[in-house]
User: Which sequence fits this backbone?
């Protein structure tokens, strides 16, 4: 067998293993090891190559932001700031049918401006919003689906880890990318909110019996709104103000944000030593589970790159006589398909350097291309079999009755809405470039 055939075979075997019930990281690692062994003909060399991939992934400067943002997310959760964001958003949308769902989207949009990473939003709001929505009569599938869907806002609304990575890969201004992500991020949040409202208005049974029974409840006074909203505004101002003011880099914002969240928690007297120890423990557990996913995906991406499968697909797209839009649409489709099995960073590391010479020769606006890439990549966070946001939500859930299938089904409408927003950004590039 040729390396290309081995790569395709390992891809099929990996999908079969995952659907057969194997743990996703195990399936990825096993297929990666056997694939490299078959390509190179040496089990020892395969082990060394994959060990090097794991070491480089964990020691990466970019990876350091994951535990920091997860730490900040858990501190925000324990000190009540995450719940405060949820309460404020719920109060703002309380008069709408499906207000809790819309409020969750709004709270995630606010939280995205603090963290910049989807997995942190997924972990925090799984513990905050899902129990509240279920308590108010929302269906479990919808509750986990709205958290999974709105968690992707963290990768589009600045600061965004993926936009930073794209900027470094393409030598584009990270500041321009952040500005370009504002309008599409707001548009995506509006699409989610309007979609929930229309569903609650036209098909309330799909959201659960609590939607048909009445509206969301909120008894917050103006003073309560100030007390709950001010720490959130302060933390957002610290993170974004420091980035745009040039005081620290977007990656360092994770550490600054975590420190700011801890300080706010101490000043509010809502962060005890016991809570802080639990936060550190939970951060370690979540980071470890995410690490296995990312390491396995990175191993798999190395095996795919070695087999030549991504290069073959990329050369086919670039060499086919399909015109400008044919190349762009084929690229988007390839990104979405790869998003079903690889993590976001691996997709960008494989495809962006491959397609950069092609789109540069076609005089494509690389800022717009970056926003299109990030939206397409983020669709993969909600699609099986990989769907890292879905697995993060499952790991953070305390309800064994909610299966991975329930989360994927609940997230499906949000993935479709993301595709609609992606189509709008493709058709109207000014949505991404208008503010630059």
Assistant:
């Amino acid at each position: 067998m040729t390396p290309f055939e081995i790569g395709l075979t390992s891809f099929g075997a990996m999908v079969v293993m995952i659907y057969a019930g194997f743990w996703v990281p195990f399936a990825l690692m096993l297929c990666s090891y056997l694939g490299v062994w078959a390509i190179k003909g040496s089990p020892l060399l395969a082990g060394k190559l994959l060990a090097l991939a794991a070491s480089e992934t964990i020691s990466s400067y970019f990876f350091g932001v994951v535990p920091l943002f997860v730490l900040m997310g858990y501190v925000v959760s324990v000190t009540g700031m995450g719940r405060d964001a949820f309460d404020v958003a719920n109060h703002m949308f309380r008069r709408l049918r499906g207000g809790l769902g819309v409020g969750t989207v709004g709270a995630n949009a606010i939280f995205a401006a603090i963290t910049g990473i989807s997995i942190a939003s997924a972990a925090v709001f799984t513990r905050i919003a899902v129990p509240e929505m279920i308590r108010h009569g929302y269906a479990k599938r919808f509750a986990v689906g709205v958290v999974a869907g709105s968690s992707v806002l963290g990768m589009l609304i600045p600061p965004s880890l993926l936009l930073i990575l794209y900027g470094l890969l393409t030598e584009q201004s990270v500041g321009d990318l952040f500005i370009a992500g504002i309008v599409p991020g707001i548009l995506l949040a509006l699409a989610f909110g309007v979609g929930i409202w229309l569903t609650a208005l036209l098909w309330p049974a799909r959201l659960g019996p609590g939607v048909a029974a009445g509206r969301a409840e909120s008894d917050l006074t103006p003073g309560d709104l100030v007390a709950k909203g001010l720490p959130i505004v302060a933390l957002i101002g610290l993170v974004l103000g420091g980035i745009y003011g040039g005081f620290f880099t977007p990656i360092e914002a994770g550490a600054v944000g975590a420190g700011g969240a801890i300080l706010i928690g101490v000043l509010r007297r809502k962060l005890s030593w016991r809570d802080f120890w639990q936060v550190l423990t939970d951060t370690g557990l979540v980071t470890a589970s995410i690490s296995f996913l990312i390491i396995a995906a990175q191993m798999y991406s190395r095996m795919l790159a070695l087999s030549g499968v991504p290069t073959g697909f990329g050369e086919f797209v670039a060499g086919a006589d399909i015109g400008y839009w044919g190349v762009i649409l084929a690229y988007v489709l390839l990104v979405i398909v790869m998003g079903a099995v690889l993590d976001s960073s691996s997709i960008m590391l494989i495809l962006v350097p491959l397609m950069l010479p092609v789109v540069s020769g076609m005089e494509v606006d690389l800022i717009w291309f970056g926003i299109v890439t990030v939206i397409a990549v983020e669709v993969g966070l909600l699609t099986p079999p990989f769907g890292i946001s879905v697995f993060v939500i499952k790991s953070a859930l305390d309800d064994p009755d909610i299966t991975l299938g329930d989360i994927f089904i609940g997230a499906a409408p949000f993935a479709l809405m993301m595709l609609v927003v992606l189509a709008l950004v493709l058709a109207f590039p000014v949505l991404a470039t208008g503010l630059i």
Summary: Residues 62-271+308-436 form one domain.
